[in-house]
Design a protein that fits this description.
The structure holds 2 protein chains of 2 kinds. By secondary structure, chain A is an alpha/beta fold. Helices cover 40% and strands 12% of the residues of chain A. Chain A has 2 domains: 140 residues, Aspartate Aminotransferase, domain 1 (Alpha-Beta Complex), CATH 3.90.1150; 238 residues, Type I PLP-dependent aspartate aminotransferase-like (Major domain) (Aspartate Aminotransferase, domain 2, 3-Layer(aba) Sandwich), CATH 3.40.640.10. Chain A contains 13 helices and 12 strands. In chain B, helix 2 crosses helix 3. Chain B is of the alpha+beta class. Chain B is built from 6 helices and 6 strands. Chain B folds into 2 domains: 41 residues; 86 residues, Alpha-Beta Plaits (2-Layer Sandwich), CATH 3.30.70.920. The chains are: A alpha/beta, B alpha+beta. Chains A and B meet through helix 2 and helix 11 of A and helix 2 of B.
Chain lengths: 398, 161
């Protein structure tokens, strides 16, 4: 048990660490890139954040807020002016109305919104459905909140979508929540209005709540993103999570938000209040400017991502790495089956032999086996260089 | 028009792109791209391609100056005749008609400050219509034609998750 004064010799710090935390494996992406970081001349297509700097007019608002001495906490839920802008933004983009004072909380990144929502909703033993491959946070955050993560393996041939069959088969009497991670990291898969309309009745029938992680909502390349919250009766059943990181290239500002029914929102707010108090003030002032005047920036960056996306997909298919056509986010998720290696071995070999770092698909769940994630949040020049190395690797193995 | 604009932006950024590269990047047909490039060259939209060189790194003695010229416009010719006379000098890299306090901005390159000063004193200021000159030497380039010279942008992103 724990060390005491009389028992100095047997003092063992790890024994103080919560067992559940001990059992959570570190992120598979991190583990891999810690190795890459020790090597020289590595080209990476690994990171999951925009390569663009936050547009200057947004940065400038943060500077101004500091010059004016706005260095205090904001309201727990965030600046009301920002919440009003978020309400406008949601109205314009997904056509759902949220009350700025009752249904919106500004968080430290979408990550905090996700964590706080899971903690606000999960009772011990509740099952949480998590379509995979998907972002690495859902599982550990569910476990830490006392829930039981239930992965749903989506498939390339279905466009990595959550099909009604897959959803239906995963539901048990203990299922409480569905995490809906679309547009998807790492696959680039999306759920269209038609796709969503097929799962909505199942969600209602099973009486589930949905956590819709829409952080990549602005980065879709074949039409506008559709939120499940727009469906009849789904607004109150859904916690929509979004943020500024991907759309406005504001990762380092750590700013996101959650929108939900007032009863659910006030529960999330309680956790946010005690754990965080309020999101950074200068980030919030910058975010107001982003929402008011950042639309052209989004379009400019999206156009650039789209160019790289087409280029990468073509190039990978030319190399015989069958690549599901990604419709959202900034990742491609090609198959590496033709190499006859598992994802970890492939990435390890690619790193040692060609000094090119990509992320093994298994970092995003077991169903990511046989795939790797390649980010195109890199300059075209960098992508071209990387592709040359990948080509050399493919040649050496053929 | 949208297609043309995108194509030009790509070529402006990287002149080594082939029609095939651009076709891939834009998701267009290679033949269509090649034809459009030919058309743009014929119509003088694309004037040429060249390599961007940071001469400071290889020939630090090279001196660049921006000269403000006040000139007397000529009947029937305006500023065109004097501009043509000036751009004919091989030392002159650019000539631009300006609004405001002076008329022509002339960029001159020489092997030393003295070189440039001599050129201005002997060749430019002696032209009939030139009223006055003001020479400003370039000390350091930070960004030229959209390209950063002084600060190499570094990828500072780290893998967090």
């Amino acid at each position: 048990m724990n060390g005491t004064k009389n028992n100095q010799d047997s003092f063992n710090p790890i024994s103080f660490v919560n067992k559940q935390v001990r059992n959570i494996p570190p992120s598979g992406i991190r583990r891999f890139f810690d190795i890459a970081a020790t090597m020289d001349d590595v080209i990476s297509l690994g990171v999951g954040e925009p390569d663009f700097v936050t547009p200057w007019h947004i940065r400038s608002e943060a500077v101004k807020s500091l010059e004016k001495g706005r260095t205090y906490y904001t309201a727990n839920a965030g600046l009301l002016e920002l919440r009003k802008e978020i309400a406008n933004y949601m109205e314009e983009t997904i056509h759902v109305s949220y009350h700025p004072e009752k249904e919106i909380v500004v968080t430290v990144g979408a990550s905090e919104a996700l964590d706080a929502t899971l903690r606000a909703l999960i009772e011990p033993g509740d099952e949480v459905l998590i379509p995979e491959p998907s972002f690495v946070c859902y599982k550990p955050c569910t476990v830490l909140a006392g829930g039981i993560p239930v992965p749903i393996e989506t498939k390339a041939e279905d466009g990595f979508k959550l099909t009604p069959e897959l959803l239906q088969n995963a539901i048990t009497s203990k299922t409480k929540l569905l995490v809906l991670p679309y547009p998807n990291n790492p696959t680039g898969g999306i759920m269209t209005e038609d796709d969503l309309s097929k799962i909505v009745p199942i969600i209602k029938e099973a009486n589930l709540m949905v956590i819709s992680d829409e952080i990549y909502s602005e980065l879709t390349y074949t039409g506008k993103h559709v939120s499940i919250a727009t469906f009849d009766g789904m607004k109150d059943r859904t916690v929509v999570i979004n943020g500024f990181s991907k759309a406005f290239a504001m990762t380092g500002w750590r700013l996101g938000f959650a929108c939900a029914h007032p009863d659910v929102l006030s529960a999330i707010l309680k956790i946010h209040q005690y754990g965080i108090m309020s999101a950074p003030t200068f980030s919030q002032y910058a975010a107001i400017e982003a929402l008011k005047n950042g639309r052209p920036d989004i379009e400019r960056m999206k156009e650039e991502y789209n160019i790289r996306r087409k280029f990468l997909v073509d190039a990978l298919n030319d190399l015989g790495m069958t690549c599901f056509n990604p419709y959202g986010a900034f990742y491609v998720f090609p198959s590496i089956r033709k190499f006859g290696m598992d994802s970890e071995d492939f990435c390890q070999a690619l790193l040692t032999e060609q000094r090119l770092a990509v992320v093994p698909g298994t970092a995003f769940g077991d169903s990511g086996e046989g795939y790797v994630r390649i980010s195109y949040a890199y300059s075209q020049e960098n992508i071209k260089k990387a592709l040359k190395r990948l080509e050399a690797f493919a040649k050496s193995r053929s | 028009m949208e297609f043309t604009r995108k194509l030009l932006h790509l070529m402006e950024r990287n002149a080594t792109y082939t029609a095939k590269d651009i076709a891939e990047l834009l998701g267009e047909d290679e033949k269509k791209v090649a034809e459009e490039i030919a058309r743009l060259q014929e119509t003088g939209v694309i004037l040429g391609t060249k390599t961007l060189i940071n001469w400071e790194k290889i020939a630090p003695e090279l001196t660049v100056a921006i000269i403000e010229l006040k000139v007397t416009p000529q009947k029937g010719e305006g500023f065109d005749k004097i501009a043509r006379e000036i751009y004919a000098f091989p030392e002159v890299r650019s000539v631009t008609l300006m609004s405001g306090g002076y008329d022509l901005a002339v960029t001159v390159v020489g092997n030393s400050m003295k070189d440039v000063a001599m050129f201005v004193g002997e060749k430019l200021s002696t032209l009939d219509t030139v009223l006055s000159t003001a020479t400003h030497f370039v000390l350091k380039n930070y960004k030229v034609d959209g390209v950063l010279y002084a600060d190499e942008p570094k990828d500072e992103r780290v893998i967090t998750l």
